[in-house]
Write a structure and sequence with these properties.
The protein has about 400 residues and is α/β, with parallel strands linked by helices. The chain contains 15 helices and 17 strands. Helix 11 packs across helix 12.
Length: about 400
């Protein structure tokens, strides 16, 4: 009895340390007993579609482009389009899923919630303790959903936050059928100290690195640069390059003369578009300076090119190598290198590489190139302006299939 009582006390202590930003009518133990749903269940799609409508009507939500992008992801037409890609087979959710959202991308928690629900699961999302306005807005609208709509899916959701207490992580990890960890390699290692049940699994999203590649001659053909500047800004400065899919380095493809002219045209346009939209923190300037010094110490021939106001720092690397991915700096700091073709990436790409954004290349050309090279890394190749667009296939995981199970009748 003493052992049993001690376990109950420990469990209750863990729960008491959890703060709810949104909850349905059930506690964790009851949520664990909720039946799994089919993938793209009608109630789930209806719930997310109504959620999208409320977001798009909300005045405060409209101030945040990343929230509006999420709302468009949840629109009925998009969900129907996604559903068509998963028609084959009979799949249900795996059960109780526990998602640890990252602390550097505010909107990520909403996407991992949507993916978990679409895969047919109960979803408890631990969000960052940082005070993100996007989190508050979306949880407030979720609460409106709970009060206005009689949809069972509202009880399949919990949005929580808690301090880094191992006993709480142990408790939540012991409950879940799938644990989804969005964070750096160190975060993943620390969370994995909390054991799972024997048949439970982890889906992890560790440290990744992304690049942008630009064909110089195509930049020189552009008359008005504002659209491209806006798209590049959305990929980078909009979230301070915090997302793993935001490019940290730029490959320029072409001859030296074209590259020099294209760089001047491109970066002048980026600076003009960004200058009055992005607030540069003094600490970020120091980080850029230190990153440049480290690169210069560790690699030969490095040149640093900075624009006025320190807004953009370009670190020119004459001989690109696999160490480049170790030099991460936010707030408009980019490593640059050049080549006559894309083959130079064989010297650069590792398993850490996630997204390649591009301008001036044809899709068919890139498909042939990636099939030929078969890099150990690179999971996504998207046009400039699309790096932050969420997909149900992320980091090489098909989230619907990873978060669901298939049954067979013979």
């Amino acid at each position: 009895m003493l052992r049993s009582g001690g376990a109950v006390i420990h469990m209750q202590t863990s729960i008491d340390k959890i703060h709810f930003l949104y909850r349905g009518k059930y506690g964790f133990e009851e949520m664990k007993e909720l039946p799994a749903l089919p993938i793209f269940d009608e109630d789930v799609c209806c719930f997310l579609s109504e959620y999208s409508k409320l977001i798009l009507k909300d005045k405060e939500a409209k101030l945040y482009p990343d929230i509006i992008t999420f709302a468009f992801f949840c629109r009925k037409s998009n969900l129907e389009k996604l559903k068509k890609e998963y028609r084959q087979g009979a799949r249900f959710g795996k059960g109780f899923t526990f998602h640890i959202a990252p602390s550097n991308v505010p909107i990520n928690f909403a996407y991992t919630l949507a993916a978990g629900l679409l895969a047919g699961n109960t979803c408890v999302i631990r969000v960052s303790s940082k005070n993100f306005q996007q989190t508050e807005i979306l949880c407030r609208i979720l609460q409106q959903m709970y009060e206005r709509f009689e949809n069972p899916v509202k009880n399949y959701i919990g949005i929580i936050t808690f301090e880094r207490k191992k006993e709480v992580m142990d408790y939540m990890s012991g409950l879940c059928d799938v644990r989804v960890i969005w964070g750096g390699d160190e975060t993943i290692s620390r969370i994995r100290e909390s054991k799972l049940q024997a048949r439970s699994t982890d889906i992890t999203f560790g440290d990744r690195y992304s690049i942008c590649m630009i064909r110089a001659e195509e930049i020189l053909k552009i008359r008005e640069m504002e659209k491209l500047a806006q798209e590049f800004y959305n990929d980078t400065f909009l979230n301070d390059q915090n997302a793993c899919s935001s490019p940290k380095s730029i490959l320029w493809v072409g001859n030296d003369s074209d590259i020099e002219k294209a760089q001047s045209k491109f970066w002048d346009a980026i600076h003009e578009y960004t200058e009055n939209k992005y607030h540069l923190e003094p600490m970020t300037v120091i980080d850029k300076y230190l990153t440049g010094l480290c690169c210069a110490i560790d690699m030969e021939g490095v040149r640093i090119k900075k624009h006025k106001n320190n807004l953009i720092w370009r670190i020119e690397i004459p001989e690109p190598n696999k160490k480049m991915q170790d030099y991460i700096c936010m707030g408009g700091c980019f490593l640059e290198y050049k080549s006559e073709n894309l083959d130079i990436l064989e010297k650069v790409v590792t398993k850490k590489y996630q997204t390649v954004s591009y301008y001036g290349f044809e899709k068919e050309e890139l498909q042939e190139w990636i099939r030929e090279k078969r890099f150990s890394g690179i999971d996504r190749i998207v046009p400039i302006g699309k790096t932050l667009e969420f997909s149900l296939i992320w980091d090489g995981y098909d989230l619907i299939r990873e978060l669901s199970r298939m049954y067979v009748i013979i």
